[in-house]
């Protein structure tokens, strides 16, 4: 019976030693899982930060898009206003005519100059000052009492008078 008890105690000690090793393996596995959970948490935080940055960029892009849309509306309104003013100017200019003498349009208008409008350039004719042809002090201008005529200049559709 003593030998049997010693054998059972010895077997129990071996089982306890095995249980201790198994417990150490379990603790090591739990440590590994804890490390993995910490890495997952860090990756989630980085991902969350990245998503926040993307959201900020989208918000900024939305703001810029809204500003651009407002600028486009303003440009469209300005274009419409300029078009209306151009039509009014055409109607007003149509009422004017220069005298019927045989001056050529190229003699009274110089070549166009570049006018910067926004980011585009437009050609606008300039009036050329001409010296008077007569030297008489009391000489009347021949065009008094005559209706002026409109002279057409081939400078991008501009008309001079």
Can you walk through the features of this model?
By secondary structure, this protein is an alpha+beta fold. The protein folds into 2 domains: about 1-95; about 95-130 and about 145-160, no CATH class. Helix content is about 60%, strand content about 15%. The chain contains 2 helices and 4 strands; from the N terminus they run ααββββ. It has helices spanning about 1-95, 105-110, and strands spanning about 110-115, 120-125, 150, 160. The strands form 2 sheets. The chain has a two-stranded antiparallel sheet with strand order 1-2. The protein has a two-stranded antiparallel sheet with strand order 3-4. The model is unreliable at about 100-150 (pLDDT under 50).
């Amino acid at each position: 019976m003593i030998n049997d008890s010693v054998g059972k105690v010895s077997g129990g000690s071996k089982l306890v030693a095995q249980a201790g090793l198994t417990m150490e393996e379990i603790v090591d596995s739990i440590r590994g899982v804890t490390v993995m959970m910490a890495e997952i948490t860090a990756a989630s935080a980085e991902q969350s930060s990245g998503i926040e940055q993307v959201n900020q960029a989208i918000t900024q892009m939305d703001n810029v898009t809204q500003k651009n849309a407002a600028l486009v509306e303003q440009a469209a309104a300005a274009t419409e206003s300029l078009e209306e003013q151009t039509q009014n100017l055409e109607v007003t200019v149509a009422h004017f005519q220069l005298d019927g003498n045989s001056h050529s349009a190229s003699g009274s208008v110089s070549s166009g100059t570049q006018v910067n409008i926004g980011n585009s350039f437009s050609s606008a004719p300039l009036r050329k000052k001409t010296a008077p042809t007569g030297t008489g002090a009391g000489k009347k201008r021949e065009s008094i009492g005559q209706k002026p005529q409109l002279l057409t200049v081939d400078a991008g559709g501009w008309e001079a008078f």
